[in-house]
Here is the input.
Amino acid sequence: MHLLPWAALLAAVIVPLLLPNEYYLQILTQGYVFAISACGLNVILGLAGQLSLAHSGFFGIGAYALALLATKAGISFWIGLPAGVALCAVSGYAIGSICLRSKGHYFAIFTMAVGIIIHLVIQKWESLTRGHIGVIGIPGPGPIGPISFDSTLARSYLALFFLVITVLAISRLVRSPVGRTLMAVRESEPLAAAVGVDVMAAKRLAFTISASLAGLAGGLFAGFIGFLGPESANVEMTFNTLLYVMVGGIGSLAGPVAGTFIVYGLSQVLAVLQHYQMIIFGLALVLLILFMPAGLAGAARSLMRQRVSEVKPS
Amino acid sequence: MMLVEAHQLSKSFGGLRAVDRVDFSVASGSITGIIGPNGAGKTTFFNLISRALPASSGRILFDGRDVTALAAHQVARLGVARTFQATTLFADATAVDNVLVGYRQRTKSGVLDALLRTGRLTREEGEARAASRDALAFVGLDAFAGRRAQDLTQEQQKRLAIALALVAKPRLLLLDEPSAGINAEQTRGLISLIEEIAAAGVTVLLIEHQMQVVMQLCQRIMVLDYGRKIAQGTPDEIRTDPAVLDAYLGRH
Here is the structure.
């Protein structure tokens, strides 16, 4: 079981070298970036049990922070990226403090409104963001010592590096008292409060981490593509990310990453169908919720549990 | 020495006074019971003491300190632990993970400790695991530490809920109908567990429907009816109190 992450990592290191052309490499890199965002959504949704629909708003904030700092103030990718993450952390903390006063469906609706507002601000504040035209000529990551990030291959490894760090950080968090506290909040808020958990603080922490990871993904997205439009902060993006997390398995560590690659990969393959692909995704999602509510990771887990109990009946 | 004092404590839901100007106190080190017909306001009274619900009026003192305006988690950290009527546990987590959550209030490790695996995290995890093992052993569940809470029997779940409440060494334990849903023999085991908890120095306040459990365990009893306190005293006093007899037997 502990070999699995290493095998996945090895595959991730080798696969880019085998890809036939730049186009696939770019898709792969984008996949890593969206997987980081999906892991971020999983922190608030999977670990703390709160469905935040403001996620791509924070993706947009991180992306635009890097893009505008670079194009307006000449600030490098390596400064712009952490600056965007920090901005998302601060705004996530502030917005979370307000949104998290509502619960359940109300929280989802509230955060969706926040996401829409962020998108609208980006779209309409033309003097800053150039609205629909978008920001062009965003410089990519500059070299670190002898390592240059000009090639698509190097960028894909850089994205992979950030994804691995993200998954590692979340796995450490899950296995720590902080992770157990979030689990307690997700399972039962009254019981968590009764054993001394500050429920609001726990949820706010998860929201802040989630927003920061969305910002990290957004910053990478902007720096790698070199162009940024307001649709990157669209609520539709949030629902795509939600789909990645649901397909992979809400609350599992590897699920959001696997879900991103399956759904995003499939959407690239099905791109020829244009908008009709939504029919396929819609149907797939209904079937998924009916038959695999815990996603692929959940299905794998219950399969393993079944096999274990077959080997040694309890 | 009174550990808990309620002064004119009230809770209204719309026009309904679920708890109506109750004056009540719990002596430190005692086992005290709250009884009353269904809908008398017993659980609401518990929810007020543990601050799961805000009081409409009145005051609550814990160890002489006014806790009326504190949040539930703050009262918990002062040493008020509770179980819920429908055994509430973190169902999908293992028994030991449940209890570990209960110890969280005693630890300080945060996100940075978790990410960097600091010495503090390792030390606190060690403490937490030792305390959780002790708590599970105390309630007789040491053999079930790795079992998921939802896979335990009803009685084991009740014991686990008590371990979860006890692990942080509270001073007051609120038990909401500990004997509900378990058989007579299991109830006897639970009574002796509650006696052991009290003997360990934890003040116990419990709601109970089974008279024989209350009469056997409690030094003092309060009787609620329609949110009002209609009697309080020793088991013998309660047994012969005309208002209590009326409330329980009078309306048929």
Q: What stands out?
A: Chain A has a mean pLDDT of 90.
